[in-house]
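Private note to self, pasted from the team thread so I don't lose it. Backbone tokens:
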């Protein structure tokens, strides 16, 4: 039980630190009303208080008419419009209501611009003792969860192996640790096993380290779900070729993820400028040069957008992002704003918003249009590595498979879902001069396939 005691101490310490941090933040006096006995502060560590998410304190005097009720209406009608005027970029607010004399919290509210700054709900405390009681309940719940989890692990360890395997396959999952709503292709697991364990040069090429970085990002995507996912897909269009480390056909559009495993500090090469952008990067410590991943991703996004427009008879929203799977990576100099650049630790939040976020700027696309793209790619025997059943309005109970899937099973199931759930009843799409294959097949040194014009 030693680790449980350590967990309890950690949680108590965390709660105390959180309270201290909230109290020690420097507030900015944003607004006040003497008539209503209220002062509004924005919690800020400096002058730059205007952010997408702001933390606000509403301090009520003892005789304030808002001490009992009316705080929500006051914020929505008076504070919200002031936020819009003074901080155009603000989107959400976390509001804490406290007594000015004692500092006692009496309410916690959340509000957003999209909802007209009308707070969703308020959680009230009548006394500080309820805060302590709530903390004690939280610690007790964690302890109870730890005990139950330990008993379950013990039960699973002693259970017969064949009994454990059946539910895994019944969910349509070909790997025990796959997310239950994700169906993965056998090819995905074969390629995972082919990634070498030894370290490889971190020059961003198609080496073991780069493939391990791609596999790590794929696991994040597979856990979040939200679309049809390709790994290492190549495109030839109008005699131009490119490849996509990861390509996701999601209900809101198409996302291309370029993954690099780069270490050290990099900067744009000033001698490689074209149209105001650097086409090469240089590593500061040794002068190693490489093609700019931003330029690569931008070019791939343009080619894919043009090809998808012809295949789908519609200009699909195509987005690109460059993810660096290395914590030692740094980029200095002027940023290239054509494509987002981020570390792998930032990608999870980015993709969750893209795949499922309510506030995403990406609009939905008619599913029959989207369905044409993966159906066209199938013509070249290129299957995605996984797809999310929820994207088709289904859950794991609709798939009853009591054995390992083959590539043919995977292909048949996805075609069926695309044609039925995504409302597309034609497989043959007559488009010339657009060819999809593996990333190796579109290497510039290789000849184009037979029949390619």
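Design output:
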């Amino acid at each position: 039980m030693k680790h449980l005691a350590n967990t309890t101490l950690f949680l108590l310490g965390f709660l105390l630190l959180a309270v201290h941090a909230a109290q020690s933040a420097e507030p900015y006096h944003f607004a006040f009303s003497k008539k209503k006995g209220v002062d509004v502060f924005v919690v800020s560590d400096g002058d730059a208080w205007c952010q997408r998410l702001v933390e606000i304190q509403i301090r009520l005097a003892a005789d304030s008419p808002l001490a009992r009720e009316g705080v929500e209406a006051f914020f929505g009608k008076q504070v919200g419009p002031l936020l819009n005027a003074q901080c155009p970029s603000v989107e959400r607010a976390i509001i804490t209501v406290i007594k000015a004399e004692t500092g006692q919290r009496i309410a916690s509210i959340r509000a957003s611009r999209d909802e007209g700054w009308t707070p969703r709900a308020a959680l009230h405390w009548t006394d500080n003792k309820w805060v302590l009681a709530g903390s004690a309940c939280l610690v007790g719940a964690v302890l109870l969860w730890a005990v139950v989890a330990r008993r379950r692990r013990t039960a699973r360890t002693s259970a017969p192996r064949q009994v454990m395997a059946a539910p895994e396959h019944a969910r349509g999952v070909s790997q025990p640790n796959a997310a239950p709503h994700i169906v993965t292709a056998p090819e995905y697991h074969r390629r995972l096993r082919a990634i070498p364990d030894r370290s490889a040069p971190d020059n961003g090429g198609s080496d073991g380290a780069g493939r391990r970085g791609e596999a790590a990002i794929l696991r994040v995507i597979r856990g979040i779900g939200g679309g049809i996912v390709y790994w290492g897909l190549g495109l030839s269009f109008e005699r131009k070729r490119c490849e996509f480390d990861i390509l996701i056909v999601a209900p809101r559009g198409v996302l291309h993820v370029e993954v690099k495993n780069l270490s050290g500090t990099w900067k744009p090469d000033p001698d490689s400028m074209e149209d105001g952008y650097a086409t090469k990067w240089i590593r500061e410590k040794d002068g190693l040069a490489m093609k700019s991943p931003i330029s690569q991703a931008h070019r791939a996004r343009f080619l894919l957008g043009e090809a998808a427009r012809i295949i789908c008879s519609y200009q699909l929203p195509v987005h690109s992002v460059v993810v660096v799977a290395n914590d030692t990576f740094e980029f200095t100099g002027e940023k290239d704003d054509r494509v987002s650049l981020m570390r792998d630790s930032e990608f999870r939040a980015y993709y969750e918003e893209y795949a499922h976020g309510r506030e995403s700027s990406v609009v939905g696309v008619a599913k029959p249009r989207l369905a044409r793209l993966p159906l066209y790619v199938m013509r070249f025997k290129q299957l995605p590595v996984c797809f999310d059943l929820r994207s088709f309005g289904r859950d794991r109970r609709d798939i009853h498979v009591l054995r390992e899937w083959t590539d043919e099973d995977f292909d048949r199931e996805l075609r069926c879902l695309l044609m039925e759930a995504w409302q597309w009843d034609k497989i043959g799409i007559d488009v010339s001069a657009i060819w999809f294959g593996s990333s190796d097949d579109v290497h510039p040194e290789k000849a184009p396939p037979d029949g390619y014009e």
